[in-house]
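Incident review: delayed structure delivery

Summary: a single-chain prediction request sat in the queue longer than the usual turnaround. Root cause was a stuck worker, restarted by the on-call engineer. No data loss occurred. The affected request and its eventual output are reproduced below so the record is complete for anyone auditing the incident later.

Affected input:
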Amino acid sequence: MYVFIYIILQHQRPVSQTQEVVMASNIMFGNSEESQDYRCHYLRKNSSLPEVTAFTTFPVNSIFFIDSSCSGLTLRKACSVESAARANPERQIVVLSTSPMNPENAIIKKLLSLNNTSVLRIHLENYAEETPLDGKFRKKPLSFEDLNIDLADILKFLTLYKYSGIYLSMDVIVARKFEGLLSNWVVNESPATMSSDMFCFSGNFNGRAMAHVALK
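Output delivered after worker restart:
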C-alpha cells in the first residue's frame, strides 16, 4: 500500500512543503470539506465508468465499497480498497461511485489494474428500484433534509439488500482473508454498540431478514 501511495504521488505536479503537509493530513485523517449538496450525483456527463443497471449481478461473496462523495477517490480510500483486494484475491472487490469519475484518473487506473477489482457508477434515481426505498432518490436535486440520514448510510444497507455480500467503509484496512466467519456478521464498536463500517449480509433467510430490517 505504501508503494501505491508513492507511485501515485510521483505522477502529481510538484507541490510546496505546506501543500505536502496538507495532503498528508487529508490522506491520514480524511480531512475534507464535503458538502451536503447531492446535485453531483445526478450528473450524467464526464463519466465513462461502466454503469450498474437492473441487469447487473455480482458474485455472492463480493466485497463492496461505496464512494458517495463529490470529490472522487482519494489515496486514503484507494488504500482501503487495495488492501481488501490483495488480502482476498478470490473475492470480487466492487467500488460503487454515485458521482462521475474518469477511469483514466491515476488512482482509478491503479485500482483497475488489480485483477479482482471493478469501479462502477450507480445512478441514484434508478438504484433503489424494486426495493423498499423505491422512489427515495427521484427528487432532484436531493438534499440532506430529504433523506434525514447520511447518503452513504443508506447506500451501504441498500447495496447489501440488493446483492448480499460484505460492506466495508473506506476507512477500513484489511490485513487478512475473510474466512472462517459466519454467513452473516457485524462487528462491535463498543461493548454496547455495533459498527456499520464493516458487516456482512448473506443471501440466506437470516441475511435477507437483517437486510430488510436495516432498510426500515
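Verification: The chain is about 35% helix and 15% strand.
Action items: add queue-age alerting; document worker restart procedure.
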